[in-house]
Amino acid sequence: MNPLLPWAHGLNEVRFQEGGFGPEALAELLENVPVAIAVTIGPEHRYAFANLLFRSALRFRATNVIGKTAAEVAGDLSTPETEALRARVFETGEPCELSAVPIEHNPGEEPSHWDIKLLPVLDSDNSVIGILTLAANVTDRVTAEAEAQRQARVAAY
Q: How many CA atoms lie within 13 A of 149 on its CB side?
């Protein structure tokens, strides 16, 4: 099961109203959800939003990423392949999903693994103006699957 679906299921039901759930409450909610969320705008992919989990997953907990490009923020985590995927989503408007992407924080350490979904952000004319990135940490799942495979190999001998 995709770990992003249960959280995002009712997202289109969020309403802003006088005395109710307002922009400040939404900002607080998005900052602290257990899903890494970021929004980039334009073909240069400049950050308009990145929540706490997104920033900490990329080692940017205290750094303001707003206005910086995805390549500037990701640094050595940015690859030609990831840049090509972002460009494809921006150009075609087609979502892209990646499974169990390893992110190595420090050489020699075990990487964390993330399921990542890149979704187009559309304006009122249905033109792509940016990308919404949603990512869920699936390191426990990847570790459990690797251990199950290891045990199956041992049992086969």
A: 6
Q: For 10-27, write each residue's pLDDT tens digit.
A: 444 445 555 566 777 777
* Spacing of C-alpha 60 from chain mean position: 14
Predicted model pTM: 0.78
Distance separating alpha carbons of residues 136 and 113, to the nearest angstrom: 8
Q: For the chain, what is the radius of gyration of the CA atoms?
A: 18
Q: What DSSP line would sit under the chain, residue for residue? A: --TTHHHHTTGGG----TTSS-HHHHHHHHHHSSSEEEEEETTTTEEEEE-HHHHHHTT-SSS--TTSBHHHHHGGG--HHHHHHHHHHHHH---EEEEEEEE-SSTTSPPEEEEEEEEEEE-TTS-EEEEEEEEEE-HHHHHHHHHHHHHHHHHH-
